Task: inverse folding
């Protein structure tokens, strides 16, 4: 069953000023346990060969993997990456990257998700898995703030 407060929190995370919005990552579709993200490719994302640098694919994968977990968590609970693994399948050229991610398993403290990243022509460009620590947002209050 969909939790509208939960999804509103997820949607808000893609509209606040942060790293993801600076990059241009967009939350296109979501439901509990699933997200579809898009990342418009900018010239700065290209490597010397003219293809999208793998780091941007890894970033999109990490965002999608974590967001899939977040889509199942109640308000006030978040997740952070423990490990991600990305298998790059082909070099990507073009103007937009797409990612679909879904939850494989979520427990009380750990969640695991899987993502597929697609080139503009729909070709499967990478697959990724991620493991995430699930914790209260209040556990981050002890961290120093960077302004």
Result:
């Amino acid at each position: 069953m969909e939790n509208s407060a939960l999804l509103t929190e997820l949607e808000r995370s893609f509209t606040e000023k942060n790293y993801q919005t600076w990059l241009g990552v967009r939350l296109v579709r979501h439901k509990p346990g699933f997200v579809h993200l898009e990342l418009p490719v900018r010239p700065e994302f290209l490597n010397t060969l003219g293809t999208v640098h793998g780091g941007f694919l890894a970033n999109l994968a990490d965002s999608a993997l974590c967001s899939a977990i977040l889509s199942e968590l109640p308000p006030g609970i978040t997740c952070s990456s423990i490990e991600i693994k990305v298998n790059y399948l082909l070099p990507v050229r073009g103007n937009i990257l797409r990612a679909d991610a879904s939850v494989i398993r979520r427990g009380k403290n750990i969640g695991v998700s899987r993502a597929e990243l697609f080139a503009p022509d729909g070709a499967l460009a990478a697959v990724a898995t991620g493991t995430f620590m699930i914790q209260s947002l209040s556990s981050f209050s002890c961290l120093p703030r960077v302004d």
